[in-house]
Sequence to fold (176 residues):
Amino acid sequence: MCLPGLTRTGADFDELARTLAHDPAKPQRAIARDSRGRGRSDYDRKPANYSPTVEVAESRVSAHGARDRPRGVRRHLKGLVGKLPTPRTFEEGADILRRLGASQFPNLGPAEWLRQSRRTWKKEDHRLVLAYDPKLAAILDGIDLERPLPPLWAQFDALAQVPLMVIRGGNSRGRR
Fold:
């Protein structure tokens, strides 16, 4: 089960899913879903439903006891969610993303930035719009960024019997 980040979509895992599925030694099934208000999922009429509590209930692995996800969010994310400029083209979107993220992802080339642009925005009524509901920003308003993140070792321990791979980019701006 591939769970994308706050404003990301299941499309982020397309290449990984193909690679896992076509592994000649041990093909694996990968499921990547769009959470409510992201990608191909419908937007929620009640932005309060974008809360971690509701989302955990939808995506938890209850059979194995996992109950929570991290609640903390860094300032950069809070400052970007729902506030990205609207590009006229996917190419312009790629330039926006490159300007914002080149320091975190220095090895991405033009094709990768364009692919990321196509995952960040979608065409709707002959214009580009975010591939997630901008109202997701509302859940970040009540988060105190000065409070420390809760420890999550118990959640990882609950998944001890489940094959698990956690990917966090080395250049990610998350807590270090």
